[in-house]
Amino acid sequence: MNETMHTxxxxxxxxxxxxxxxxxxxxxQIETTFVPTQRKxxxxxxxxxxxxxxxxxxxxxxxxxxxxxxxxxxxxxGIARRPDTCLxxxxxxxxxxxxxxxxxxxxxxxxxSASDTHNRKNLNRGVDDTLAALPxxxxxxxxxxxxxxxxxxxxxxxxxxxxxxLDQVVRIGRAFRDAGATVLVVSDTTGMATPLNLRRxxxxxxxxLPDVExxxxxxxxxxxxxxxVLVGLEEGIRRFDSSVGGLGGCPFxxxxxxxxxxxxxxxxxxxxxxxxxxxxxxxxxxxxxxxxILGKRLQGQVMRAGPRLRLHETNAVATAAG
Length: 322
Ligand code: ZN
Known about the structure:
Helix content: 25-40%
Radius of gyration: 19 Å
Strand order of the largest sheet: 1-2-3-4-5-6-7-8
Distance between the termini: 38 Å
Shape: globular
Number of strands: 8
Oligomer: single chain
Strand content: 5-15%
Bound molecules: zinc ion
Largest sheet: 8 strands, parallel, barrel
């Protein structure tokens, strides 16, 4: 069956997709409930058990700005580590880098918005100041052998500034690359990516920075998150961020909602012939557990319906009377 699909003809290295779970950071930062540290650790350990090998576990953002993630160091210390698992954290400024350097994270995700206005809302400083701090942050990370990705937020549009000039997106990508980031996480912070502007932004970054890998961080704000994944796959992207249950949203952007859900993404990838090494059923269990912990219904769809061939007892539903 797979052989008839276009992915069936792709060489194995082209079928592998790196899924980075970001719900513990992007998701929990917007929740009003503080999830107890021990529960966070348990959820992350469950994710590792499910086969997820890239997890953004927290942020070293100021605890005053995001109290939900104030326990970053304690969470990291409690995780049952595996040598093949990469734990990352958001490192949005120099102070955060100093904290990160004292921990055992594998990767720092540096951050800058393409929109100057959003960057001021999110990081309390302009783009130029954020980029100027990158070399010192990078030096701290390099000294600890911590890898670096660079996330370009609002790359596909900003709720305050609208479309962002491609030059500006490329300028930030170049600054990350020059600082030593090996992957640019092109981020649709508020769900403004479309198949058309996604191809444009990815194309501009590829043309200007052919030596750096690209990842996509998509939100499902307008319901086309997974459609954008398919476009990304066509464009050769093999790294995607997602969150269990579709948790997530930027606290500093009006109308922002959740990331694409990890279960929905895994379902799409599995059923399209890509390989992730992640067990969908186990991730569904993590999403359901997250829902119980937060005490609210999450947005994921596959977590409700289950995998396509999860069959039900014929008497599980009533038979029509007429
Ligand atoms: Zn996000």
